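## tool: complex_structure
## caller: assistant
## args:
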Amino acid sequence: MLIEREGLQVIDTDRPPAEPARLVDDFTPELVDVGTHGLCPGCGEPIAVRAAVEAIAELGLTQRTIAVFGIGCYTAFSNNLDVEVLQALHGRAPSLATGVKRARPDTAVITVQGDGDMVNEGLQEVLHTAARGESVTCVMLNNGVFGETGGHLTATTVLGQRTKNTLDGRDAREHGYPILLADLIAQLEGAAYVARCSVNDAGHVARTKRHLTRALETQMQGAGFSFVEILTMCPTGWFIDTLEAPAYLESTVAAVHIPGVVKDVLASRG
Amino acid sequence: MSRRLLEGSEAVAEAMVAAGCRFFAGYPMTPFTEVLEHLARLLPEYGGVCINAESELEAVGMAWGAAATGTRAATGSTGQGLSLMQESLAELGNARVPLVVLNMARAQGDYFQATRGGGHGDYRMPVLAPQDAGEAVELVQTAFELADQWRMPVLVFGDYYLAHTAQSVDVPAAGPAPAAPDWALDGGTGGSGRAKLISPLGSEKRRDDVGYDLQEHYRACATRVEEMAAGVEPQAEVVDADDADVIVMAWGTPARYIRAAVRELQAGGARVGFVRPITLFPFPSATVAAAAAGARLVLVYENNQGQMIDDVRLALEGRVPVKFIGGLSLDHSGFGIAPDLEVTTMRKRIEEAMC
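## result:
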């Protein structure tokens, strides 16, 4: 029921709805098998995964792609995509991706890992894969917490962030400093494309897809290792209201892990 | 087939390539290192890939990725390096990914690691223990066949002596690598509505019920391990067990010293038989029980503090007394050269234990 409030027609949320909720549109993106994924409301990971599969499809790589998944909430999608998937153990996706690509150089290989998976458990893997200049694309969904375990400190958690094992906020004296992975990887000679982006609003989602597209193009041209870090919302693990999460990402997370293209070897070659 | 004088490391590397292996990843560690050296040289000659992995964790991960594309793949290390690989070895069978894993061990302390499933969960894998380079060449071929048949890791268990002793071996000519099996990933099923999934959490997509059913999956994995344990033919070498008073058992390269000592005792009139398990898993329990049926005593030599002896006791179910005549023997390097391994010493140990 619409009511007038402050001169606007708005839905009245002060009383029960006049009719039950109904499905307006059950749009399921291409290459996603099942529309439901079981992740929390407000989670940024489904948006990031969708951007990745859209980039794959638009580049015509659907029948050449092998996606290697890490372990985290996003693992819900390893069983839910219509591209071939190799599920890795926690932290190990870059070495599996290396084996896949070396054995089948004609494929497009993309890893999907979280910050806990990639930076905590498997930092060595992604750094060596980048240093070797492997022709694969590694994607990190960075929400700054172990979301699946319920909101615990990771190696990318920003200072001051409250987590279940830093109840008073991350304090550098106690817990050290966050690792800014995109900046670290960009220093390696083998890395050809490095970008950081986010999914907290439509404009950033569009940029994320452009970065993913560019990373895959870099891989398919054999220019070297490509890396896209995507900042994602985790209102559950951040212990904040779902609707506040995009703004929190912008003001707090993206203020430390700063979005932008860090390195683009193809562009600098002209 | 050509007969060549090769040290065991090179024979194993040649046998891998002959068996169709086209991907290897490893991290140097004595006495495994030379296998990596030979494969780094050999594999590119056959269109294969050998990667110098930055750790054992990455070595097994790279091999996992290559194997998932249907490429015959292998990795290896010593027992210490295999300890680092155990998480992956535990899950490869759950993911139904075949892989040959080489343990060029230091002495024989990794028997439990190899045969008990050194990682987490309810799994075992076939374990093949050659006594010399010639047998290693045959068992490497068997290992790739078993890995493909059961879609799980298969361990080939050597040691310092195997790796570094040169002998004449028949090396089969390298044939073409086998075609990738139907389940292998190549990207081609993307967008078909039936895109392939290879996952240690279960590779069946459950479209109507999002996520993985782990109880159902792990039970199915355990069933496949049971089928493998019943389906792989146990192998053992049995010498003069029929009217033996005492059976002496050993495995791997030390068994050659034990067998020689048994021969010396036989020449002196002693009724001594010899049993050497070749498959450590499945353990040749029926063969051991049959060989020891008429014996009053079974002696077990291992270059460790006593591990296979547990399987011997399980095989005999208390019907025949079992005594340990082994014990860890290492030179100062710790790499697995055993001062004890000398035929006269072994013969005296057997004689003392027989009395």
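## assistant note: The radius of gyration of chain A is 19 Å. Residues 42-268 of chain A form a domain with the Rossmann fold fold (CATH 3.40.50.970). Handing back to user.
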